[in-house]
Write a structure and sequence with these properties.
about 400 residues, alpha+beta, Porin, 3 helices, about 20% helix, signal
């Protein structure tokens, strides 16, 4: 009897424990299922968060790439001129912030880019003010391949030494040389299309079709080349200009270049005068041996038409030679002899000579202080000195 009661009690206890265990298992399963649902929900949220983070990172990267592809630069120069005209006895004592220029560029892709240059001349512009606000460059450039690059818009004509590279730290002398200023005439920009062909290492060819000059046909500036620049301000395009340049730089320290330009009528088909077709020929050499550099340039305009011939401006030409010596990163000396003729008249009395001797001091490779003595002879008689400071960035 006792055994039966004990067995019955043990069976009852086992049954109750089994029932309890079954209930506990169900509860555990419920808890596990709930936790699984929570984990699944967390996974979905995490995936969504990762997707948002990736999208945000893409946007940040795109913005960063866009910002890094946009560049800003510029240059400027302040001049002091103290020159005496010995024929008239008058003095030119003048301080002028001659140029303040800003560059803006952007790379759309590795092969396509934009470049622009905005300039303020002589600090103030407007009615009765001495200066101008000018857009000197604004063009799109595209590399078709490693050899061929094209551009379209408003750009500098490929001619001479300083027309394309004229930032103050890159040349000697406070003022730019008078030959390239009056004969070429730098700085000279037009609107149109251009191609650059890299034919071989160190050998390149440029070709452009652009707007051209429009010289006056009467008055003191008649057939004067520099005054014929239209600066792409509602420019008369009756007669376009065609320019070609060859440039050789394969030998270290040597640069050789020659440019030819033809315009069928530099009066832009003005009435009452002969058609004045014009051809510009210019060549230059730059040769450096260690610290010594010599630059030389020749330029000549040949203008047809009876009116230009009568004024003596059918042939306008000039040349200069400039040796310089760079003692170190900070200090350099130069001398430059210029001879040119763009004045009206048919005698040797219209020829002008100009000699400059001076020093450049580079406080930084992009910051320069300049001083030079200037002597003008021939058709003019003047002398004095110039001081300047310039920068680029």
């Amino acid at each position: 009897m006792k055994k039966t009661i004990l067995v019955t009690a043990m069976l009852g206890l086992f049954a109750s424990q089994t029932a309890f265990a079954s209930d506990e298992t169900k509860e555990l399963r419920k808890i596990i299922e709930q936790q699984q649902k929570v984990l699944q929900d967390l996974e979905r949220r995490l995936e969504a968060t990762e997707t948002r983070v990736e999208k945000t990172a893409d946007v940040v990267e795109e913005v960063a790439d866009s910002n890094s592809a946009t560049t800003i630069g510029g240059y400027g120069e302040l001049h002091y001129n103290n020159i005496t005209d010995n024929k008239t006895g008058s003095d030119k004592k003048e301080v002028d912030f001659h140029r303040f220029v800003l560059f803006f560029g952007h790379e759309f892709t590795e092969n396509t880019r934009f470049f622009s240059e905005l300039e303020i001349e002589h600090a103030l512009s407007g009615n009765d003010k001495p200066g101008e606000v000018e857009l000197e460059q604004a063009y799109i450039e595209h590399d078709f391949n490693n050899m061929l690059t094209g551009k379209a818009g408003l750009f500098l004509i490929p001619v001479g030494i300083i027309n394309e590279t004229h930032e103050p730290p890159t040349f000697y002398g406070v003022e730019r040389n008078p030959v390239e200023k009056n004969i070429i005439p730098a700085t000279w920009w037009e609107a149109g299309a251009a191609l650059n062909v890299k034919a071989a290492p160190g050998l390149a060819f440029d070709g452009t079709i652009t707007s051209g000059l429009e010289v006056a046909t009467t008055g003191g500036k008649a057939y004067n080349i520099r005054s014929g620049r239209q600066k792409v301000a509602k420019a008369n395009a009756s007669d376009l200009a065609y320019t070609a340049r060859a440039k050789y730089t394969a030998i270290p320290g040597l640069e050789l270049a020659a440019t030819a330009q033809y315009q069928s009528d530099i009066t832009q088909s003005a009435g009452g005068v002969d058609t004045a077709s014009a051809t510009l020929l210019t060549a230059h050499v730059i040769y450096s041996i260690e610290a010594f550099t010599v630059k030389a340039l020749y330029a000549q305009w040949d203008i047809d038409g009876a009116e230009a011939e009568a004024l003596g401006r059918d042939d306008q030409n000039g040349w200069y030679i400039e040796p310089s010596y760079r003692f170190n990163d900070s200090f350099g000396l130069f001398a430059r002899y210029n001879r040119y003729d763009n004045e009206a008249g048919n005698s040797d009395d219209t020829e002008i000579t100009q000699t400059n001797v001076g020093v450049n001091y580079w406080l930084h490779e992009n910051v320069v202080f300049k001083a030079d003595y200037e002597k003008v002879g021939g058709a003019k008689d003047a002398d004095g000195f110039n001081l300047g400071v310039g920068y680029q960035f």
